[in-house]
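Design job #97: recover the sequence.
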């Protein structure tokens, strides 16, 4: 009898996990909407659109003084198998950091209130994961795990609401 109860409990947990995975939506990312700015010497800005038509987009730029260091275009889409973030980095001359037509693609893997993580296994050539979360109502933090020279490293960007 205990064995049957354990099997039923395992089936229920598996089904519940599957239902939760299907329930993820762009509504889980609404907290990102708006303009965000962070940094002192190196300033990084992200501007996120509200979800519409199964898509969220964001534009980002990083600059140091008068010199542009990076542009980024981000598209997050609702797909049949989940939510996926895709993005490319650009230089000031619009050449890309990623090789050829490559882009970074990260599925949404974790959702909590005002806290989402996109991660890929195996990682892209450059990025393994990005976690966006709000430590308080006016602060957004992005924790990024990058892949460099066969190893992993990371950094955090801390933004305040700019609009």
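Job complete. Output follows.
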């Amino acid at each position: 009898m205990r064995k049957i109860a354990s099997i039923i409990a395992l089936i229920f947990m598996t089904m519940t996990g599957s239902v939760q995975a299907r329930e993820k939506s762009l509504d889980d990312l609404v907290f990102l909407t708006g303009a965000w700015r962070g940094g002192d010497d190196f300033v990084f800005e992200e501007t996120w659109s509200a979800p519409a038509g199964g898509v969220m987009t964001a534009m980002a730029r990083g600059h140091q003084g008068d010199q542009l260091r990076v542009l980024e275009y981000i598209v997050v889409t609702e797909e049949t198998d989940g939510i996926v973030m895709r993005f490319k980095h650009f230089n000031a001359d619009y050449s890309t950091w990623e090789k050829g037509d490559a882009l970074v693609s990260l599925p949404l893997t974790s959702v909590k209130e005002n806290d989402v993580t996109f991660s890929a296994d195996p990682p892209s050539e450059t990025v393994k994961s990005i976690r966006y979360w709000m430590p308080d109502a006016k602060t957004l933090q992005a924790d990024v795990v990058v892949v460099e020279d066969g190893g992993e490293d990371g950094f955090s960007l801390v933004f305040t609401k700019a609009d």
